[in-house]
Structures are given as structure tokens and as C-alpha cells.
Amino acid sequence: MSQDQSNQTEDSRLSALGYKQELSRVLSKFGSFSVAFTYLSPMVGIYSLFVLGIGSGGPRYIWLMLIPVIGMYFVAMVFAELGSHYPISGALYQYAKNSVSARYGWWVGWFYSISLLVTVAAVDTGVVPYLAAILNSWFKMSLDPTQHSTILALTVILLAIQTILNVTGAKVMGRVASFGSYVEIFGTIGIALILAAAGFNHGFSFLFSTNGAENVATNSLGVDFGGNWWLGASLIAVLAHAFIFYGFESAGDVAEETVNATHQVPRAMRQALLAGAGTSFILVAALTLATPSDPEGYATATSFAGGVPFILENAIHSSILRDILLLAVVFAFFSCGSSIQGASARMLFSYARDGATPASKTLSKVSPRFQTPVNALVLGALIPLAFTLLVNVTPSADIKLGFITYPANISALTSLVSFGVSGIYLAFLLTVLGALIARRRGWTGEGAYTLGNKGMLVTIIALVYLVVMFINLVIPTGLASPRGALFNLDWVTLLVIAILALIGLVVYLAVPNNRKK
User: Which domains does the chain have, with CATH numbers?
Assistant: First the structure.
């Protein structure tokens, strides 16, 4: 089948679902995969979370990766069937809306949209230290990446560039993501090979040790698991992996811009997850084996004082190679942020096209020149920018809110970012629950990818995984506990979810269309 014939088939399917083709269907198989893969971004995840994982769980934490990868693969299969049946922009919102009801879909989309926009802010502010290092080295600047003005200025520049590129068309977004995929390969497998060539400091058996992580005296992050690894350290260390293995669903967000979407969207989801798992394992293994063998050096490498930069600096002595790596890290963050912004804009566009948001006519407007949802993309930049301003809200003392304590020296942006992954898991959980409800009502997938008679079992396994991991993410165990100190700030993440739910209720009721549903 030619591309024109494939596009006509997809346009007809979209029309049967009640929508007119307005976006440009130009994303190739690799482009669709790349959008999903760069959002998942093994480089961004590992360079950001390696210390949290190995610091809390020791070298053995690498094997915990199997839990979220396997769990999320079941989720990916559920989403793949839904994405093949409903190849519509807005993915999770549309899946839940069509599985249960418009009201149910709205709330799924609300938590997912906010999580996406929070993640854009987290990624674009997270790259600031690496970007500042390049600018300081190459142009003799003196940028301080910890200063709020530096964070804001560089984030504004990144958001502006990402928005301009995304506005100019899905093909440009696909090209940025495609190049980002190659950068991911270099930044994971390539760096692993370089570290191997430089010489590892440990043998393979080191990956099965805890190296004392379960004991507070030898834990690199100074957290206390009371000597218990399986029921202590592992429950926290697994979250460093849980924060990485999502984003594959964004292939569904750009379904209306994907050639042969009914076939390609489910394929891209599963391939992006598996590719992310393979490259992540290789990089984590290489970084772990490259940690210094002496206790002091290992402690520095696996703590916030050192981390991945410390490991690479000790192993790679070529300043040119280090600069190339630094540039690769920056582009990985950039392409990740670009893909997430593109996905969030499609979600906003999908909402607006259904008349489910304030200013729906404005947000649903598609540029006749670029065939992209321009206004949704602009809003998808302005909201993360507003979130970035929250870095300036940092209390100098603990704030008591009834039984909840907001800790000192934690910015409002940090607490919002702590919600980001929990919000993603909540949206995933509700979507899979919706799929289960639909199956109980007799729904069967009619796309190119179906689960057949295994659908119910796959959906239940996916739901169980999401429920268990969501509880592990948000359960309040005290600010002094490893979970409260490193991830959810005790009750703060649940408090943020509650606040966002209240804001969502106001937004929902502000739209006359929603009140009629």
C-alpha cells in the first residue's frame, strides 16, 4: 500500500471516529518510534536518577529494572491495542473517554496533561547545569546553574526554541526526535563501550552485591533501611527505574500525524519501551562497574556530591570527548523536552477539539501553513514556564499544614516535580482500569493490533502493577524515611494531587460543555 493510500485509509478511520483530518500525517515509522523513545529518554532518566538508584540500593539495584520494564510492557500492550483501535491525538484522554465516558476521560486527561507539562519544566530546568557547563567552558561565561535567574533565562530560551521547532511541523518534530534517538544510542551504548575500553574497576559479580546500601553507616545517601535490603532498600531503589520507563505512550499522542498509525502506533509503543530497557541496562551496568573500587571514591560516585559526572571524569581523560558527551547530554534533554511538549500540545488540542477546555476554539485552531496546533503548542510552553517560576518559592523554614509538614529549603517546583511521575502513574492506572471496564462490557479491539483472548489477563496484570507501584510512589512514611526524603516528601505529593484535583474541578465546571455530560 502506498503512503497516499495508507493516509486515505487512516483519514477514513479518523472520520469514522468522529474527527476530520486536520494535522499533517507525515511521521514515518522511525519518526513515531523516536518521539516515544526520546520522551522515555534513557539518558535523561539515568543521568538524573542513577545516584538515587545506586545510592539507595547499591549495585544490585540494576536488577530491579526488570520490575517496571515487565510491568510497563503489560501496560504498553493494553495501550497498543487501544492506540490501534483509537488512532487519535490525545491518546490516554481518548482511550479513557471511549472506554468509559467523556467525564472519566476528562479526569484521566487532566492528570496526564498536568504531569506532561510538569515534566517539560523538570526536563528543561534539569539540563541547566549541563548547558551552563558548556557555555562556561566554550564561551568563558560565568553562569551559576543554581541561581534562579540562570535557571529561568536558560529555560525560557530552551522553551522558545522547542516551541518554534514544534510549530513548524510534525516532520520537524520527528527529525529532532530522530536525531535525538541516535544521540541516545551514543549516550548509552557508546558511553558504555568507552567506559569498558577505559577499564572497569569491578567484575560482573559486583552487580549482584548491595555494597552495604542497607546499612546507614555505609549507605551513600545516608538513609537508613535498618539493615533490610529486600523489604527496605529495594522498595525505594526500584523507584529510580519506575521514573524512567514511561513515555512510550506518546506515540499515541501523535497518531493523527503518523503514517499507517493503526499499525505503527502499537509497534512504536512496544519498541520504544524495549529499546529503552536495553540501552538503560547497558548504561547502568557500565556506570556501576566504572565506579571507583576504593570506599571513599565509591561513596562519592554514588552520592549527590559526585554521581555520573564524577564517574565519567575519572574514567574519560580526553577533554574533547568529555565535551562531546556533555553536548550529547544537553541534546538528549532538549529532544526529550521537545517530544514531551509536542505530546502535551496534542493532548490540549484533543481536549479543545471536543470543546472540553476553556477557550476551546482558540486551542483547537490548526495552522493552515504548518498543520500544527499552534496555540496549544504556545500554551504548552507557557504553562511549564509558569511552573519554572515556582523555583523562586522556597521556604527557609518548615511549614506546618495540619498534620502535613512542608520541608524547609524545598522549592515549590521540586514538590510539583515529585507529583509528575505519580501523576503519570495515576493517569495510566485510570486508563487501564477504563480498559478493564470496557472489556467487562464486551469491548474488543478492532485495530491492527489486538490482544485477543489474552486481553483480560494482560489488562489485570497491568492494573495490578500500576496499583502497587503507585502506592509505593505516594505512600507517606515520614520526611525522615528514605521515601519521604528522596521521592515523595511524605504527604506533600498527595497534597499536590489533591490541590490539582480541586483546580481541575474548577476548570471542568468552567466549561459549559462538560456540565452537560
Answer: 24-515 (1.20.1740.10)
